[in-house]
Amino acid sequence: MPQRRTVRRALTALLVIALAAVGIYTVVGFLQRSETLVSERCTATVGALSAELATDQAHNAALISALAVRRGLPPRAATIALATAMQESKLRNIDYGDRAGPDSRGLFQQRPSQGWGTEAQVMDPYYATNAFYDVLVTVEGYEALQITEAAQRVQRSAFPEAYAQHEDMGRAFASGLTGQAPAVVTCTLRSPEASGNAAAVIRELEAAYGPITATPQEDGSVRVETPYAWSVAQWAVASAKDLGITGVEVGGQAWDRSTRTGWQAASGTAENVVPDGTVEIRLAVVEGS
């Protein structure tokens, strides 16, 4: 009898373990498939340096970085701008100020009363970013300055040391979004709720990079020929949520929104490979949208 009880207990324990394993597998599978439980975010990883932004912050970071590329500025300029905007507005285009600057507005909290432009102008992210760069480029040797000093020469903040806490984020995202470092910006996103629009993507590209060769394709995708291929590609990833982008391919690498695995080697035959200097941006097609 004792031996039978021992065998029965062992079998019961094995059954419990097996059921637990099945339960864990089921839960993990559910979590992986559940759209509502996906934590949407964008990350930039350059070597040991890694930073994370919400999707709306990443979209603004892409805009700020693209304008640096358009102006021919070095990645350091984008780093300074990103760290500044994070400190001033959390990289969000806010329409209010604070006690120190009640009329401050926009990504950089620029004050119309201090000569930055009208309220409507500083609330325009493109105008505000260019206004920031217009002053930054007048700062002699800004590339070699500490980020706190460079930002302070532009902003004249009451708390200049605060900019330093965002330098790592600025460096990581600027490296990828300016194209200095390839395949470092990736976003984890839910499936798109609406179809993408090629014309809207091209308008956004031209607003950020200026005149650009972007052509809609028969399958609804957009092909971009540009010397800034990796900048454009990572801009597209960072803008994927707002623009209904589902995939990006460039330089033998591909980002697929559905896999949520980041950049991977592009698959396909030699006939359909995306050539160097070209970015393919695929858009969502959602029925009824």
What is the secondary structure topology, with strand pairs?
Blueprint: H1 2-33, E1 41-46, E2 49-53, H2 55-70, H3 75-89, H4 119-122, H5 125-136, H6 147-155, H7 167-177, E3 185-188, H8 198-209, E4 213-216, E5 222-225, H9 229-238, H10 240-243, E6 245-250, E7 253-256, E8 263-265, E9 278-283
Antiparallel strand pairs: 1-2, 1-3, 4-5, 5-9, 6-7, 6-9, 7-8
Helix pairs in contact: 2-3, 2-5, 2-9, 3-6, 3-7
The count of helical stretches stands at 10
- The total of beta strands comes to 9
Integer count of domains: 2
Give the terminus-to-terminus CA distance: 69 Å
Characterize the main sheet. 6 strands, antiparallel
> What's the multimeric state?
single chain
Rg of Cα set: 24 Å
Strand order of the largest sheet: 4-5-9-6-7-8
What is the averaged pLDDT score?
89
Written account of the structure:
The structure is a single chain. With 289 residues, this protein is an alpha+beta fold. It has two domains: 42-177; 188-283, no CATH class. It has ten helices and nine strands. It has a six-stranded antiparallel β-sheet. The radius of gyration is 24 Å and the shape is globular. It starts with a helix and ends in a 6-residue tail after the last strand.
Keywords:
9 strands; 289 residues; six-stranded antiparallel β-sheet; three-stranded antiparallel β-sheet
Compact summary:
This protein has 289 residues and is α+β, with helices and mostly antiparallel strands. It is built from ten helices and nine strands.
